[in-house]
Amino acid sequence: MIKLFVGLGNPGPEYAATRHNAGFWWINQIARQLNVQLVSERGFHGLVARASVQGTSVWLLLPQTFMNLSGKSVAALARFYKITPQEILVAHDELDLPAGEAKLKQGGGHAGHNGLRDIHAQLGSSDYWRLRLGIGHPGARHEVVGWVLKKPPLDEQIGIEQAIDRAARAFPLLVAGDMAAATQAIHTSTPPRPKPPRKAPLVADAPASSDGAPS
Q1: How far apart (Å, rounded) are the C-alpha atoms in residues 1 and 60?
Q2: pTM
Q3: Per-residue pLDDT tens for 160-178?
Q4: N or C: which terminal CB in the chain sees fewer CB atoms within 10 Å?
Q5: Which residues are part of the catalytic machinery?
């Protein structure tokens, strides 16, 4: 059962549309789905909403500490409400997945993601769940910082939004703790097939006149 849903990103309008804020996008969609409003909670260093889902209290959290200090916010709320790492799900951008893919996993390393790195350190555990939202990779390590802090082109944006929609539909399964069903729902992606090129209409041969020329 997941009680705390966290989206990673950077606060401020200059970052709102960047790839690094994919986790924010997902939590904002869940808030709309639940018809709740995220409000600033200074004690938790973030924007927080509480909702009752299937008779269970759940929290949504957008850390406002900037990415590198995300754990400060996550740990503050988790400790106050006595939420264990196994009851936390963190949604974040994932370089190792193409735009349009999403994967659910528990535990593991932070793979250089600074938000996850700080959550590891602040919780003292890596045993929380992650919703990995693919943003693709620029192809060279030195281009990563610029890549994550830029807005994706339209085709990639559409793919990311489709993955976010798919994961949002799995939200009740995550709350219920049915992680196998949630994994199947989130991982199953059927990209639209490209439309075949339109064939030119066949033109019938014109009837020939008596002298052999077309009429």
Answers
A1: 14
A2: 0.86
A3: 999 999 999 999 999 999 9
A4: C
A5: 20
